[in-house]
Amino acid sequence: xxxxxxxxxxxxxxxxxxxxxxxxxxxxxxxxxxxxxxxxxxxxxxxxxxxxxxxxxxxxxxxxxxxxxxxxxxxxxxxxxxxxxxxxxxxxxxxxxxxxxxxxxxxxxxxxxxxxxxxxxxxxxxxxxxxxxxxxxxxxxxxxxxxxxxxxxxxxxxxxxxxxxxxxxxxxxxxxxxxxxxxxxxxxxxxxxxxxxxxxxxxxxxxxxxxxxxxxxxxxxxxxxxxxxxxxxxxxxxxxxxxxxxxxxxxxxxxxxxxxxxxxxxxxxxxxxxxxxxxxxxxxxxx
Amino acid sequence: xxxxxxxxxxxxxxxxxxxxxxxxxxxxxxxxxxxxxxxxxxxxxxxxxxxxxxxxxxxxxxxxxxxxxxxxxxxxxxxxxxxxxxxxxxxxxxxxxxxxxxxxxxxxxxxxxxxxxxxxxxxxxxxxxxxxxxxxxxxxxxxxxxxxxxxxxxxxxxxxxxxxxxxxxxxxxxxxxxxxxxxxxxxxxxxxxxxxxxxxxxxxxxxxxxxxxxxxxxxxxxxxxxxxxxxxxxxxxxxxxxxxxxxxxxxxxxxxxxxxxxxxxxxxxxxxxxxxxxxxxxxxxxxxxxxxxx
Lengths: 287, 294
Description:
The complex is a heterodimer of chains A (287) and B (294). Chain A is 76% helix and 0% strand. Chain A is mainly α and 287 residues long. In chain A, helix 2 (16-36) packs across helix 6. Chain B has one domain (21-285). Helices cover 70% and strands 0% of the residues of chain B. In chain B, helix 3 packs parallel to helix 8 (146-160), helix 10 (169-196) packs antiparallel against helix 12 and helix 12 crosses helix 13. Classes of the chains: A mainly alpha (287), B mainly alpha (294). The A-B interface holds A 39, 42, 46, 49-50, 53-54, 56-57, 60, 75, 78-79, 82-83, 86-88, 91, 94-95, 98-99, 102-103, 106, 198-201, 203-204, 207, 241-242, 287 and B 97, 100-101, 199-202, 204-206, 208-209, 212-213, 216-217, 219-221, 223-225, 256.
């Protein structure tokens, strides 16, 4: 039997239904842990802090109806790109995805998963999908609410901007970029938590890389997640402040390449995580 | 001696003097930190800016060295208050990473493993426990911030002559006060976070978030509410305002946005409020008893 035929037979014989139900069970447990646990409060604060401020803005600046939509559009873009993309989603994913495995080590509960008759790849995938779902729900809701508050207080003018202008497209783009950011950052942090006992210091290096990627040569800029996410953002912001002096304008990449590139990067990191989890041995001593 | 004969006896050996009991914790704190080779290596890296500063001052005053290296250092580069402020800014950020690396592990382990009660059941007060832990950080940060800065100040004063040292003695005071303020702020904050967040990794992340995420949030606050008071949450910004005042540097052209009128008293208030809040958090949690809810 040729190797191709063997592979096809093993693919067909694989217990897909069992793996699927195991994946569903892990997903349910992990989503519940990520969303409803007390320690997730700070992630809600990070995500909904700007939403609260925008709600205040909607109440306080109610008088300026109809005159400030372009200003608020730029404000929304700044908040999304500077706060959410660079820091909010970054730190949120750092907390959520690092906890997926290192948290189990801290709580001395990872061996329950490892002792159950389940492939470790299914465990990695289940935890990753749960992390993506939780982070997407939290940050997606906060971005959606921010957008609603930002344009909602304009009344008819705001509705017109959203339904008959570029508003709806911008909202979709913001939500899409949020999902991609959660997938991109999430995969990196999950892999880091499997490699390092303390993934914060490599995380700090990544934060610096993502923050200062604009001053790097254009080919190095393509190795950062923010580079692709910025390309997909609906409103382009001009470089500002001292960074503008050193910014290197890189050639933009098409949207399909940006999305595909990010997803390919995440799949590659997940494949690496698959290798790491198979080699993983539990030691509860160090943490 | 048979085991059944080992009955309880009170300790009759020499006692550590009351005033120096906290040093026992410091000693063990140092040894735990320097067990990590990476941490030791990073501590050595923190001395590099001092060596660069030393070389710079030497080169500035040695025409022979300048001729040998083929460089001419005119009056453009001057060792003055701005030079020392920049030196301290670099050293302080390196010291911040040192704190974020070392501090949470020093204290959060005691809480995570419920061993704080074991410490406080000895003749050691809560304040002494805290001083013991903070002194480790304070010593390390002093060795990488104000001590090298004062050494550079002294060397430059000696080489410059002409009464430069006496004329600029206030700068030595600024270096000391500015650094002590920074050390107190990050040490207390790191300890407070370590006490409340029992997982070392989360505590480190939270410390970084305080210094990176809060400034971004303050920018959002300024932008959305059209105010400048969001800066109160921007710790790196307010500490720079205080330092610039201590180093007698004019605020013009300094602000990152057009808001250049952030008052000095507000910056001081923000720094002191963060310190006071950290002390409050420590006081609330640092207790010899714990209520477990199961």
